[in-house]
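note to self: dont lose this again. the chain is below, predicted strucutre after it. 352 aa total, dont forget to put it in the shared folder this time
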Amino acid sequence: MALTVQEARARLDRLPRAALGFFPTPLGRLDRLSDELGISLYIKRDDCSGVNLFGGNKVRKLEYLLGQALRDGATHAITYGATQSNHAMETAWACRRLGIQPILYLTAVVPPRPEELRANLLLDRILGAEIHIVSIEPGEIEADAEARSFEMGAARAAELSAAGSRCADIPMGGASPLGSVGFAAAMVELRAQADALGLRFARIYHSTGTGGTMAGLHAGRAMLGMDDTQIISVAASPKDEAAYLDKVCALTRSALELIGSDAAPDRDAMRVRLDQWQPGYEQPSAAGSAAIRLLARTEGLFVDPVYTGKALAGLLADVGRGDIRPGESVLFWHTGGATALFAEPEILGNVT
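---
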């Protein structure tokens, strides 16, 4: 049975949560871009999630993950990502906000220049996070270096535990059942805003990486009975589609269980788009760069070359193919990450 917004909020309020963000984030119509595309396009501004200038979708997950860490008495928190990881940076500032020591294990997908720190890695340094750069060694792929970073993090956590500290493990991208609860709550927030405006979105587009945001959106969709809304998740990196959907479906189910909803995930309704991530993760695409320019020059808003630019490119491609009907109400969920506009040239590409 579908829950009302009020019922869903009551169940979410039972879980530990640390206040970190500025919620609800703004929801507004992109009038000029809507006119150009011939659709009714709205944007959900999670790039404004706070608590400083560098918000993003991870704030929602961290409210629950670090809320639990505080309840458990954590003094330190370890997480993982690439050197320009939005999640790692957001974890670092969230930890500082809550009095927890952040520890980051960062895989050098694009090797940083120590003499010229940029974007998120610069912010990590300013925040005073304990940073460990994990190189991709000859003969390794990115996944091998990530696996080593997890081993290094586990060893550091054991060392801290032996010294009497308590260390929280924050999964990469916040992709866990508890982290996904944050985006189930986001769907409740969106439903309340849309109801107030008399809106129903036929489609929601967003960027997906580790899958936690996607799972949370589907958990919210299921518990609120939003069967008439399709969620299109545009991948920022290569995926094995079947294995990825299995993972997201399992996360969705576990998030719903944590919330106390008897709704079930609808795997058949899950759509992951694998046509925009090329030429690779943290590698710019021509379509993504064009999407960055279009949004900036019609609305004065910025998306990034790694995640949101490619997600917007997926939406624009669907408009071009006629998959979105003229006048259809569509939502683009801006998950943040514009700091990548100030990252290494290899990540930025040609956006001018």
